[in-house]
Specification:
The protein has 163 residues and is α+β, with helices and mostly antiparallel strands. It folds into two domains: 6-65; 71-160, 2-Layer Sandwich (Alpha-Beta Plaits). The chain is 25% helix and 35% strand. It has helices spanning 58-68, 72-83, 110-114, 149-160, and strands at residues 6-10, 14-20, 26-32, 37-42, 50-56, 87-93, 117-123, 126-129, 142-148. The strands form two sheets. A five-stranded antiparallel beta sheet has the order 1-2-3-4-5. Strands 6-9-7-8 form a four-stranded antiparallel beta sheet, with helices on both faces. The longest helix is centred in the middle third of the chain and has 12 residues, at 72-83. 21% of the residues are buried.
Length: 163
């Protein structure tokens, strides 16, 4: 069975990544802008209603991810973040209506405009580590950015067209 991930931008909150489970429920992970994550299991009778929600701290989310076999890229980025005080690592969405959806990463000039670095792109088809400037962005992509808090916030504005 192929499981597809549906990414949804939740304005002002973060990103919801959702899968359909074999028994009919939907399970989502909401990654908030502040880094916290919620696991949400939706009711099979009322698909808009949560049957259960679990809020995870960063440490709990990391542990669950490790139990489930998280990609090594995430682990390496977390180690880097711990070693470099002040750096943050965040997954930022490329909204469907982003001025950069359908354009190459180099057009954003993220590094020169903010000092932050794009270290990976998460797409439903997988992870693209260290994307080149000619990598074409799509709406629904998650851009993994490393930088100081202000720079990462600026990148979020660039990607959503508000900055």
């Amino acid at each position: 069975m192929h499981v597809s991930i549906q990414n949804t931008v939740l304005p002002g909150i973060g990103v919801r990544q959702e899968i359909q489970l074999a028994q009919g429920n939907r399970l989502s992970v909401v990654t908030r802008r502040n880094g916290l994550r919620d696991l949400v299991l939706y009711d099979t009778e009322d698909p808009d209603s949560a049957a259960a929600t679990v809020e995870l701290t960063n440490e709990e989310a990391d542990t669950v991810a490790e139990l489930l076999g998280a990609p090594q890229l995430t682990f390496r980025l977390q180690v880097l973040q711990q070693q470099a005080a002040g750096l943050v690592v965040e997954q930022l969405p490329v909204p469907d209506d982003s001025p950069y959806a359908g354009r190459v990463l180099g057009d954003t000039q993220i590094r020169s405009r903010t000092g932050a670095s794009v270290v990976a792109i998460l797409r439903h088809s997988g992870v693209v580590p260290s994307p080149a400037p000619d990598f074409k962005l799509h709406g629904g992509d998650l851009v993994v950015v490393v930088g100081m808090r202000e720079a990462v916030d600026t990148v979020a504005g660039i990607l959503d067209g508000s900055g």
